[in-house]
Amino acid sequence: MAIIEARNLTYTYPYAESPAFKDVTLRVERGEFILLTGPSGCGKTTLCRCFNGLIPHFYGGKLEGEITVAGLRTTEHPIHEIAQHVGLVFQTPENQLFALTIEKDVAFGLENLGLPRDEMRRRVDWALKVTGIYDLKDRAPYEVSGGQQQRVAIASILAMQPEVIVLDEPTSFLDPLSARNILEVINRLNKELGITIILVEHRLDLAARYANRVIVMNEGQIILDGEPRKVFLENEAALIGVGIPKVVRLYMLLKRAGLNISRVPLSPEELSKSIMEELIFDRG
Amino acid sequence: MIEVKDVYFTYPNGTEALKGVSLQITNGEFVAIMGQNGAGKTTLVKHFNGLLKPTMGKVLVDEVDTRHVSVATLSRKVGFVFQNPDHQLFSETVEDEISFALKNFGFDEKKIRERVDWALNILDLTRYRKTSPFMLSGGERKRLALASVLAWDPKILILDEPTIGQDRNQKERLRQFILQMNHQGKTVVIVTHDIEFVAECEPRVVLMANGKIVADGAARNVLTDPDLISRSWLILPEITNVLLNLNDLGFPTNVMDVYEARDLIIERIGWARK
């Protein structure tokens, strides 16, 4: 069942001369983990803003075509209503943090939902723990590092337990290990709780292994859409600007040099294993 | 030249961000300061232009103690590009943003026009000349912040997490650009945890953890040391990782480049087939 359905969607910012994206048709099934990527300025962030109604309610401008999220036409429902179904984590966390303590920031959305106190406490603690910031809960959001702020932003969305979480480069500010931990958390939300994930990322090396589908945008249009290994294998040229993971590039180079590895690797471990098998097979 | 002499720094809230850091960066060097979030990287480089003054120890920029000069004076020499561009952007148009500091530094009209055109061009922002900075994407704002610092041509360039939000092409352009600046004699210091980017640039790497420097050396030596990397809470470059997993088969463990890895693997397989 589709949780997001966009048909012939075109959007132009106020005073902009040309649309940020045009004629986008997209169907996202419930439970998918989508990696949305493309060069800077390709329209991916703008598209994400349509998923929770920020476009057109907050940004204004001209939205043409149709978009339905969790059964709601976003043009006809206010942002706070859509926000109960779709959580959006932004590129720069501090734009969405404002409370005096991290704990209050994470609780804010829940207070607005009018949840019972126990349930609120349980969800806030849980969200703080899975994002690894429980010990920081009494600190002010502006006191902690950029990476920790992003975790606060993610925790406050997690606490809402939405059906869809859209994350716009959530790991940009994180060091690699924290980035991997956050992606693991996002992956668990998807695999264990069935939350639909739309992840905007440039770092395909870290993120590709979790996704069941990669969507590549360029100049306001979707140019590629499919299973990661298939997309990487068949569209090398189109992906040069996107930055396919280095293990995939090494795989391509080895293949071109005559080495026959059957599976496109999505992690260093997968590639090492394939090379090892090739060597052992040859010896035998 | 930047000399950091046994510097300690404690924030007003009591956080000890630097615990005895000594470091020397000579003119024309290209240095990457790496480490996990909270390791003290940004705190350290904020000492280079006097934004922060040591709690103990001292920092000298061209032999001048940073405690004795204003940030404005130091800025002419040390250009600092912040991690979050929104901390430094405020003008109505991209063009105004770039010319602002130039006006403050007293450049004449003609020079300002030249420098603005140059900076717009080199960072691929010319088409946004009259656009509001806030209409730009995150990656574009980041480039604008860099353009507005580069415009006054500081001798030392400090880039705090320059690759954040940049796509593959822009990273490659940034790499070329940094190497070019460095080649022309500028000192470039980047603060980053983008291992793959550093693996491609191969600068001198200063690795920090818990407010201290834990390693200082060539990228190829520092980034491929599994023990150092795990102690600093980073992760190994992808290619290093591929070959490290094959260490039992005799592959070297200090490789970061895809082409070098390909040649080694092909050679090894050719040998196995004989």
Provide a concise account of the structure shown:
The complex is a heterodimer of chains A (284) and B (274). Chain A is of the alpha/beta class. Chain A is built from twelve helices and ten strands.
Total number of beta strands of chain B: 10
How many beta-strand elements of chain A? 10
**What is the chain-wise order of helices and strands of chain B?**
EEEHEEHEHHHEHEHEEHHHH
Task: Describe the sheet with the most strands of chain A.
Answer: 6 strands, mixed
> So how many helices of chain B?
11
Biggest interface, which chains? A-B, 52 and 47 residues
First-to-last CA distance of chain A: 49 Å
Can you list the strand order of the major beta sheet of chain B? 6-7-8-3-9-10
Instruction: Please bin the fraction of helical residues of chain B.
Output: 25-40%
| Radius of gyration based on Cα positions of chain B | 20 Å
Residue-averaged pLDDT of chain A: 89
pLDDT < 50 stretches of chain A: none
Give the fraction of residues assigned to helices of chain A. 40-55%
Strand order within the widest beta sheet of chain A: 6-7-8-3-9-10
Fraction in beta strands of chain B: 15-25%
Q: Tell me which oligomeric state these chains represent.
A: heterodimer
Low-confidence stretches of chain B: none
- Secondary structural class of chain B: alpha/beta
**Full CATH superfamily name of the largest domain in chain A:** P-loop containing nucleotide triphosphate hydrolases
**DSSP helix count of chain A?**
12
